[in-house]
Amino acid sequence: MKRILYIFILYTITSYFISFISLGILVFLFGPVIDFFMGSNISIPKYWNSVNESGVIKLLIILPIVGSVVATFFDSFE
Questions:
Q1: What residue ranges are annotated as transmembrane (predicted)?
Q2: 3-class secondary structure for the chain?
């Protein structure tokens, strides 16, 4: 039962992590494209910084990593 719970938590955290990475990649790739069509300069660093410097995004990227490390650590005891 414990193992199933750990696997479920790990699965949830991993899917959560992948969705936020893909969101970051979309912002990184399509931000400059949208910028270009809106008529302003292409600026990848601006979008990259907005993803990196936002505390919420940082937290949402760090939490799944910590969660998966903790889950792996507890799984090694069984």
A1: 7-34, 54-74
A2: CHHHHHHHHHHHHHHHHHHHHHHHHHHHHHHHHHHHHHCCCCCHHHHHHHHHHCHHHHHHHHHHHHHHHHHHHHHCCC
